[in-house]
């Protein structure tokens, strides 16, 4: 298994074309038509499932922000809501019964910055409170310190101030001054790690592979994803290394997530702090550069390298890349040189098809 295409609904011609271009797996809805087409053209069919979709639109399934509001993020509810959890287990179990090669979990995390300031500062619902206390955390301290950090951001200041972000040791000191924030980040990580383990057993017990889409290593801590724990539970790790997505507020790409965080910091003109905090080397002078210029290829290679170092060697590292990248060949080469064993393209459209035809063929 090497190179994959992320697909929406595809026709027989599409599947044939994807196969002929050298892709050996496809990721899609996992419905019967998709699976049949993949098998017909020798593509390994993977289903992609969102994880924390609520069973209905009822507000009670949604996360609660630090200000007490119910907040939806990425079509998701609270990762600690028992009904949300049961619904995910049911869907993953049913999908694993089908003739797929494997299942990619998506949205297996807490809310990211691009879902909004209030959605990001979640979850403080009753289920999360109960779980936090069971885990031995001081929930009130967690709320107090997260509220302090939220107010700081709400007042237009950076998540980590400029004078601190350039020093990793000062950044550590800053977070240690807010131990409730450390607890909150650990809590998110613990809940997500445990659920990855649970879904892994469900999927693998049906002899299916289990893969996951994860935020870039430099953002993963913020959403509760921990690359270092997935080694025993997943077969394929796919960091979402989208470096130049042009759509403001797009969820998951490195450039748009960071752009949103710098927009929160209205009182700080420079985006330096966000670049420093994430350890990137991209030349981002203005906030708008995140969308105009994007993140440089070298940073994407570095993120691949970090992922490779963090994830157990037995896991295949296959980053997923944003298709509309004028330097896609170079991006792929650098990502492969940094330790990836293949790539995926997000996603398949008629435009992507033309683009790949002219820009990518010799690489696949
Ligand atoms: Zn909750």
Task: Output the keywords.
364 residues, single chain, 16 helices, two-stranded antiparallel sheet, binds zinc ion, globular, 11 strands, alpha/beta, TIM Barrel, 9-stranded parallel beta sheet
Provide structural commentary:
With 364 residues, the chain is an alpha/beta fold. It has one domain (4-363): Glycosidases (TIM Barrel), CATH 3.20.20. The chain is built from 16 helices and eleven strands. It has helices at residues 12-20, 32-40, 82-97, 117-120, 126-134, 139-154, 162-165, 168-176, 179-204, 217-223, 254-264, 272-277, 289-292, 297-310, 328-337, 350-359; strands at residues 4-6, 25-28, 44-50, 63-64, 70-71, 102-106, 209-214, 236-239, 316-317, 320-322, 344-346. The strands form two sheets. A nine-stranded parallel sheet has the order 9-8-7-6-3-2-1-11-10. A two-stranded antiparallel sheet has the order 4-5. Helix 3 (82-97) packs parallel to helix 9, helix 6 (139-154) crosses helix 9 and helix 14 (297-310) packs parallel to helix 15. The chain is globular, with a radius of gyration of 20 Å. It starts with a strand and ends in a 5-residue tail after the last helix. The model has no long low-confidence stretch (mean pLDDT 96). Residues 63, 78, 80, 123, 125, 127-128 line the site of zinc ion (ZN).
């Amino acid at each position: 298994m090497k190179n994959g295409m992320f697909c929406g609904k595809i026709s027989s011609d599409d599947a044939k074309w994807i196969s002929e271009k050298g892709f050996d797996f496809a990721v899609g809805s996992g419905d019967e038509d998709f699976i049949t087409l993949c098998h017909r053209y020798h593509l390994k069919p993977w289903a992609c499932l969102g994880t924390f979709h609520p069973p209905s639109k009822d507000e009670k399934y949604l996360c609660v922000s630090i200000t007490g509001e119910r907040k939806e993020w990425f079509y998701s509810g609270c990762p600690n809501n028992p009904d949300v959890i049961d619904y995910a287990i049911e869907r993953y179990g049913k999908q694993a019964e089908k003739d797929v090669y494997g299942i990619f979990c998506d949205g297996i995390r807490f809310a990211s910055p691009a879902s909004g300031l209030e959605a990001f500062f979640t979850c403080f619902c009753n289920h999360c409170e109960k779980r936090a206390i069971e885990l031995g955390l001081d929930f009130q301290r967690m709320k107090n310190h997260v509220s302090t950090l939220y107010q700081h951001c709400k007042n237009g200041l950076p998540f980590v101030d400029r004078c601190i972000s350039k020093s990793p040791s000062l950044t550590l000191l800053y977070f240690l001054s807010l131990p409730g924030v450390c607890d909150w980040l650990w809590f998110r990580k613990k809940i997500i790690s445990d659920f990855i383990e649970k879904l892994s057993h469900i999927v693998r017990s049906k002899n299916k592979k289990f893969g996951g889409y994860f935020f870039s290593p430099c953002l993963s801590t913020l959403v509760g994803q921990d690359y270092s724990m997935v080694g025993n539970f997943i077969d394929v790790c796919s960091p979402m290394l989208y470096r130049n997505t042009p759509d403001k507020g797009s969820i998951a790409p490195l450039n748009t997530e960071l752009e949103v965080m710098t927009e929160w910091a209205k009182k700080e003109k420079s985006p330096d702090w966000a670049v420093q905090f994430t350890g990137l080397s991209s030349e981002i002078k203005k906030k708008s550069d995140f969308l105009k210029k994007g993140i440089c290829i070298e940073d994407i290679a570095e993120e691949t390298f970090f992922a490779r170092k963090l994830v157990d060697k037995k896991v295949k590292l296959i980053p997923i890349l944003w298709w509309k990248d004028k330097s896609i060949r170079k991006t792929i080469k650098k990502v492969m040189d940094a330790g990836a064993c293949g790539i995926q393209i997000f996603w398949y459209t008629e435009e992507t098809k033309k683009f790949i035809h002219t820009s990518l063929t010799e690489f696949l």
